[in-house]
Specification:
The chain is 57% helix and 8% strand. It is of the alpha+beta class. A four-stranded antiparallel β-sheet has the order 3-4-5-6. A hairpin with a 5-residue loop joins strand 5 (181-185) and strand 6.
């Protein structure tokens, strides 16, 4: 399609591989129910929004076998076990270290199975590996499931923690009693990471930092929106178009700087134009009826508009060299085991 940019064309071509999964697609009636349920949760005040319950409920839309209640009980039990290790008058740093020990050091508290990065799926191609319930079962996760568990447990034990993003990656922001912010890499044993190191590791424009699409601690509602991305990926993997558009627009209503939502819109509108018109008529030439030609043009304009909005906030297409460097680091980590 001539109106698509090269970056969006690449995104369209890569969707099937990037979002590969094996969960059957729900019946169409479920899409409206998904949207209504997510909207109802996002309309709640922040203090009533439980990130763990919200995440599990959204991910149950992908895998109906997820038992939300039992997983919440498991999270509550983990939080109780961590709190039981606190000394009297423990400060936030002590709590952070207790949480890190519980998750990343082998011991009876985790059945001698520390929670680890899944080196067999470094790019997160298996969507199931992003699910919080799968991480709790396997103790192997990625940059979606690992920081989400850290934050969900951290909030349960009284820490001021939330999610933050850099290109194609989620990490943890922790604020201590003095108001000082720290970066925590849940995918790397909960280590602290300086801003300068994050900038060296993840390619970001200065504009993206000024606009706050990266490196900024997300509000509770923005963190919840970030957890819905996995459902958008599920829709993308199964070629679900209009519900993907509707969901992305809903999320942007609560998180206007949610770049992933913009890119999902651009990709979905691109597929709509491609599938509905290009495959039927080969090209938008005069043989296409005027009504459909105008619709095709409108969809193409939506593709460009949403990518331009993302770029105006400082987003740039992923760099293949950066991905190759990341895979080399993963291979080095695998060899060191």
């Amino acid at each position: 399609m001539k109106t698509l940019s090269l970056s969006l064309a690449a995104l369209l071509l890569s969707c099937a591989a990037a979002f590969a999964q094996h969960t059957p697609l729900p019946k169409p009636v479920a899409f409206a129910a998904h949207l209504q349920s997510i909207r109802a949760e996002l309309e709640k005040p922040d203090e009533a929004l439980n990130l763990g319950e919200f995440t599990l409920s959204v991910q149950r839309m992908i895998d109906p076998s997820i038992d939300v209640a039992s997983n919440l009980q498991r999270l509550d039990g983990m939080a109780r076990d961590i709190r039981a290790t606190f000394p009297i008058m423990a400060n936030s740093r002590v709590k952070v270290e207790a949480l890190k020990k519980y998750l990343y050091m082998a011991g009876p508290w985790n059945d001698n199975r520390p929670f680890q990065y899944d080196l067999d799926d470094p790019l997160g191609k298996n969507l199931r590996n992003k699910l919080l319930s799968s991480y709790l079962d396997s103790h192997k996760g990625n940059c979606v499931s690992m920081p989400s568990l850290f934050v969900v447990l951290g909030q349960r034990i009284g820490l001021d923690v939330t999610l933050a993003t850099v290109p194609r990656h989620i990490f943890v922001k922790y604020r201590d009693e003095s108001g000082q912010l720290y970066n925590i890499e849940a995918t790397s044993g909960g280590g602290f990471a300086r801003d300068v190191w994050m900038r060296q590791l993840y390619e970001m424009t200065d504009l993206s930092l000024r606009t706050g699409i990266y490196m900024r601690p997300l509000s509770k509602k923005e963190a919840a929106v970030e957890m819905v991305d996995t459902l958008l990926e599920f829709y993308a993997a199964n070629g679900v178009l209009q519900p993907r558009v509707d969901l992305a627009l809903l999320l942007l209503g609560y998180a206007p700087k949610h770049v992933n939502g913009m890119l999902h819109l651009a990709a979905a509108y691109g597929w709509m134009a491609e599938v509905s018109y290009m495959l039927d008529y080969n090209s938008p030439d005069p043989r296409m009826p005027l009504k459909e030609r105008l619709k095709y043009r409108e969809l193409s304009q939506q593709v460009m508009e949403w990518e331009q909005r993302a770029q105006a906030l400082g987003w740039r297409p992923s760099n293949p060299e950066a991905e190759s460097a990341y895979l080399r680091r993963v291979e080095e980590a695998r060899k060191s085991l």
